[in-house]
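pls design
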């Protein structure tokens, strides 16, 4: 299996237009968070900004909005209807309206689980924009994987860890590489199977392994950073497999820089965020 390298990522990333403006570099929408999981939404939104998005909108349940607004200076959080601290089905219209003006959408980081919230995620599968499903955005499909058939002609990226992958019907018995490739082909999605040696797989059979990253990244919130980076690159217009490969390499490289500077034990997802610019500089300048 081919490995993702710095030279490969350098070829994938576009030159940043010196005459561009904030609308040039992608508008993305992150639909994330619930009471008790506000950090997931903040990490995702801030990661999208750090990865180059011109405009980042962050839709969160209404009780989470004051926290997100306090923590996000560059992101634009807005409140959505909620029930019991999670997104309400009544949030659908507002999400669709905001998504209509964006280039890519992320759903799932820290959403939590409820019948209303899970049903909302499944109804949003017909959004026409490239869609990243992470965490509870993936868990909402458990037992309903047939719903992905609605996205056969649209760009869809799933970013599960192994537990979420199995809940979504994935079979790890053939090994991670074969399992990721089979799942991507069967469901017509791009798959980022997270873990040591993260695998990026495409529906056409392409499969690549990421060598960057370390065990210091094994902390809650690291996956939310990756999801935000990925939706940012999709919003910039990268082809989906290119966006997946670039995001996982940059995410892991930021983690390696953090480990070198603050150590494996004490590094945090915030340390990853702070080092995304340095990781990007290595392959863009």
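designed seq:
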């Amino acid at each position: 299996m081919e490995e993702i390298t710095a030279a490969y990522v350098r070829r994938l990333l576009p030159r940043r237009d010196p005459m561009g403006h904030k609308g040039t570099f992608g508008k993305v929408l992150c639909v994330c968070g619930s009471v008790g999981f506000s950090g997931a939404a903040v990490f995702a939104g801030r990661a999208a900004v750090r990865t180059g998005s011109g405009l980042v909108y962050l839709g969160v349940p209404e009780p989470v909005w004051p926290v997100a607004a306090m923590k996000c200076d560059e992101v634009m959080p807005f409140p959505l209807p909620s029930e019991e601290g999670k997104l309400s089905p009544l949030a659908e219209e507002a999400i669709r309206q905001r998504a209509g003006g964006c280039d890519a959408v992320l759903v799932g980081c820290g959403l939590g689980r409820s019948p209303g919230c899970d049903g909302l995620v499944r109804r949003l599968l017909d959004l026409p924009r490239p869609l990243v499903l992470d965490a509870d955005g993936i868990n909402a499909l458990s037992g309903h994987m047939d719903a992905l058939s609605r996205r056969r002609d649209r760009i869809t990226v799933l970013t599960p860890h192994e537990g979420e992958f199995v809940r979504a019907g994935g079979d790890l018995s053939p090994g991670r590489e074969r399992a990721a490739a089979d799942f991507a082909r069967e469901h017509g999605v791009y798959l980022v199977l997270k873990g040591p040696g993260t695998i990026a797989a495409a529906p056409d059979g392409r499969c690549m392994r990421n060598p960057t990253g370390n065990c210091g990244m094994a902390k809650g919130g690291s996956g939310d950073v990756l999801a935000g980076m990925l939706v940012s690159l999709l919003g910039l217009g990268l082809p989906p497999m290119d966006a997946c490969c670039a995001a996982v390499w940059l995410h892991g490289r930021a983690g390696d820089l953090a480990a070198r500077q603050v150590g494996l034990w004490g590094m945090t997802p915030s340390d990853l965020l702070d080092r995304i610019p340095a990781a990007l500089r290595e392959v863009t300048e």
